[in-house]
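[Meeting: bench + compute handoff]

Bench side (C.D.) handed over the final construct sequence. Compute side (W.E.) agreed to return the predicted structure before the next meeting so the bench team could plan truncations. Sequence as handed over:
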Amino acid sequence: MSKKAESNIDKLFGSKTRTKLLKLFLTNEKKSFYVREITRLIDEQVNSVRRELANLYGLGVVKSDTYDNKLYYMINRNYAHFSALKSIFIADESRAAQIKPATNSDKWEMATKPVRELLSLFLVADPLGAGSEVDMLVVGNDYDGQLSKWASLIEKKHDQPLNYMILSAEDFYYRLSVKDRLITDVVASGMKVIIDDSSILKKGE
């Protein structure tokens, strides 16, 4: 979208923040975002974001949901003018990409959002509970047991016992460097890598 087109859309909707919000939601129609995350993504002040989210929610353009005590927002695809808004913000050639179903990785990225800032590495077996030695390997800072509580919540939602490990980054890297059998087996098992912020797996190769 050209700068001139963006400027015209800003005038049409009366707010640069509102325009950015609509663009974010309409180009990620199957994703949800929490307020602080939105603030970073669109580079606007949190008060302005909150105000425009309230306006869009009141109009029915976006909807909200609470997950792990955080309020998430996403586009309301049942909004009467959803298709019209989408045609404004999304070019014809990019529409096909928006129809793709959410992958397991997308679902796990959503599931890890409440503890994303605590995680440095996250591996998951696919499918969960299929007899794997470890179903989830969680590496990060387990402050106040937040990661433990989150993993327990995932287990409850999965509705069956899961084998999961929670390690600090230092502990994981040490065990990987000394070729701890369990850790090396887990890494070599083909588990799906959802998060590896510091390429810690490559460092251990």
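W.E. noted at the follow-up: The mean pLDDT is 82. C.D. will use this when planning the next construct.
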